[in-house]
Amino acid sequence: MCLAIPGKITSISGEDPLLRTGKVDFGGILKEVNLAYVPEAVIGDYVIVHVGFALSRVDEAEAKQIFEYLREMQELGDLQEAGAGAAPAPAPGPSPP
Asked: Is residue 4 within 8 Å of 49, Cβ to Cβ?
């Protein structure tokens, strides 16, 4: 399952708006993210990220609520490096007859 995940911008690099990137903290996991779609984003902002692109800004309370939902669903395992944590739980299939 592909999800858009909230994260906090910890640093920004690049002057060209199309090549601007930032380090984004996803609950302790740092990833490099393209910020071209959120030119107004600054360090400390929370952004929604999908496949390496920040799509929009969100407020801190909403980002934390989304993280809590994802933890409950055990979907944060997709963000962890291979071998760094448990794999996400498989999606439930149809019930046996």
From this structure: yes
Which residue do the tokens 């962890």 mark? Answer: 80
Distance (Å, rounded) from C-alpha 10 to C-alpha 22? Answer: 7
Domains parsed from the chain with CATH numbers: 5-77 (2.30.30.140)
- Strand 5-13 and strand 21-26: the pairing is antiparallel
What does the pLDDT look like over 22-68, one tens digit per residue?
Answer: 999 988 899 999 999 999 999 999 999 999 999 999 999 998 888 88
Q: How far is CA 94 from CA 1, 40, 72, 73, 97, in A?
A: 17, 44, 21, 18, 9
Helix (H) / strand (E) containing 73 = helix 60-73
Which pTM value belongs to this model?
0.69
